[in-house]
Each structure stands twice: as C-alpha cells, then as structure tokens.
Amino acid sequence: MINEQMKNYGMNRSAIRDLFEFGNQRKAIVGEDNVFDYSLGNPNVAAPADVNNTIKELLASKNDIYLHGYTSAQGDAACREAIVKDLNKRFGTTFNKDNLYITCGAAASLKIILTALYTEGDEVIVLTPYFPEYKVFVETTGAKLVEVMSDQSNFQIDFDLLEKAITPQTKSMIVNSPNNPSGVVYTEETIKKLATLLEAKEKEYGHSIYLITDEPYRELVYDDIKVPFVTKYYKNTVVCYSYSKSLALPGERIGYILVPDEIDDAKDIYAAVCGAGRALGYVCAPSLMQHVIEKCTGQVSDMNEYKEKRDLLYNALTEYGFTCIHPDGAFYLFVKSPVPSSQAFSDKAKEFDLLIVPADSFGTPGFVRLAYCVATDMIKRSLPALKKLADYYKDELNQ
Ligand code: PLP
Fold first, then answer.
1. Rounded mean pLDDT, 192-220
2. Which domains, and CATH codes, for the chain?
3. 330 CB less than 6 Å from ligand 1?
4. Ligand 1 atom with minimal separation from the 105 CA
C-alpha cells in the first residue's frame, strides 16, 4: 500500500507546471522564440552582482573546508546575525539571531511553521487569490484551509467576510503581500485594520491567532509603494521569507522563519519550528547560500527592469481591452478572463502559443495570471499574439 494522498499530489501537477511542460513541448515543435511562456515565476532579472561575486570569492577561499559542510539546524550563527542586523536597521526592530530559523526557501518556511503550529481540526485562513501550494502544505498537517474572498474590485481584504470566517478553531491566517498572483500590496491602513480585528478575535475566543506573513516579494515594489513590516503592527506575527525573488535565486533554496520574542509562547513555537524542520528531514539550509546571504541580505535585483516589463505588458493589455489589476509589487499581472471559464480562456490562448495560467487553483476562477519576470524581448514578441487573442474576444471585451 502507498499513501494515496501523496500519490494524488504527485499525479495532479499544478496548472502552472502543466503549462510550463506544454510550453517545452511546443518550443521543440515551433521554436523557442515562438512560444510566449508567462507560466512560471522564475525571475529573468539577474541576481545583484554582489551575489555572484560573493559566490566566486567563497569558492576561491581554499582555507574554508566547511564551506559545503552541515551548519547548525537553525542556520549558521553569522548568517542569522547578518540577517537580523539588516532587518533591525531597515525596520527599527530589535530581533536577535535566536529569533531566526534558516530554511530552504518560503515553501519550506511555510510547511515548517504550519507543521509546528497545527493539530488535527485547526483552521488556517487564506485570502483569495493565494499561492496554490498553501493548500498542499495545510492539508498535509491535518488542518483545514478556509478560503476568504478578497474585495474583487481591488483585491484588498474584505473585512466583513474575514470577520465571519474567523471561528474558535482559527489558529492562524496567512497573508502574502506583495501578492502572487494579483501584485497587490496591502496598505498600512489595511494591516492596522487586520491587527485590530485579529486582536479582538483573540480576546473573544481566549486564544492566540498567529498571523503568518509569506513575504518572498517584500522588496519587489514599484515607485513609492511601501510594504508595512507586519511584526510592528500585530504582536503574534511570524514571518516566512525567501531570497528566491529578491535575489533571483529560486533554485538555490534559501529563506527563513522569523519568530519574534514577543509572540505568545515564542520559545515553544521556536522549539516546534526546530522540531518540524527535523521531522520533515530538512537537516539544514544550503551551506554555501547561507554564506552568500551573510554578505548580501537586504539587496535586491534591479527593479527598473521589472518596472519596464510591467509597464510594457500592462499598457498593451489594457490598450487591447483587457481588465487588469495594476500591480504595485511582485512580477505578476492578474487579468480578468473575458469569458467565465478562465480554463477556456487559457486553452484558447494556447492556440496562439501564449501560456497564461488560469487562476482557479489560486481560489479566483474567472482570472488568469501572467508572470512577466521574463525576457523583455519575449514580451515585445508576444504582443501581436496577445492582440490576436483580444481580437478573438472582441465582443466580450467590448461589453
Ligand atoms: N509563496 C509565494 C506567494 C510564492 O509566490 C512562492 C513562489 O513562487 C513561494 C511562496 C515559494 O517560494 P520559494 O521558492 O522561496 O520556496
């Protein structure tokens, strides 16, 4: 006998991976340049120069035989020290290295904190649209995922719906801002309102409600947009961070969990985080990358490049008649499908070799996602195909 739940996760690939694989097949037939792949959030903008230089310097430093060795399970002390120093400088906080647990990216951070917190029957609230893997991470802890629809006009939080969804079983809530896939950034006002609501619910139910902030896009914002640092607004906040996007290192697998001293049962939760990392078999995060982060934390890839891509695609799509959420952060464009079925829309787009992800698995049927972290040239080459797609749907778009 095998674990049927795991078999199902393995056999039913995500919509994103499905499209990506389809794209690879099409490229073999029609040529690399004729497929417009907006499926995957794999940054095309380079890592900051310091990252590659640091890797080269580290590899050249022959005196460190433990460069590739195991580190402490919670991460190398110097790496954790460097991260909290940077956070404290930027956000006026007072974290210390023992608040941090280094992980293999945000996915691992989320899985570890959920495993650390959850017992059978507990509920975790997520706001639509949400990163589809949350469902897998939550369900495999035995907890229940509770979806709450966001305000469909701007994808900020719908507080009436959220208040109704919080029950005595609610142990935590995940928020992701800047958001994948909407590109929305929660304003300071939204975060303050959220904190007030959660504090009131903690009082009403007599137990802690932890706010898990999933922040791989924290630094990826445009113009003057500010991302509030949530631990300053709500006491029971645990931060899950990743360098996958800010340093364009998604394949290197590095991030962290921040468990501030002031949260309820902080010491027990930190111990449970270490226990969950152990139970999940993570051992420690990649050692070479921990050394890189020690030198490069706080840096970010060139946002001007992302802005150029965003403006190019957003302006073209809106000019062609599509309705899009204007992204303040991250590198995704969230577009309203001109027909009720976003799957049908995505399938039609495939006929033009345009790979766009139906957002049903994000909890938002009727929308699609375009990941514009791709070559600017590809965006330019894709515009005639996007125009043809708009022409195909001209009646629906003109309604
Ligand atoms: N959370 C969100 C919202 C994401 O978009 C992603 C990746 O795209 C992750 C988590 C996982 O990130 P990582 O590559 O750091 O595991």
1. 98
2. 4-48+301-397 (3.90.1150.10), 49-296 (3.40.640.10)
3. no
4. 15
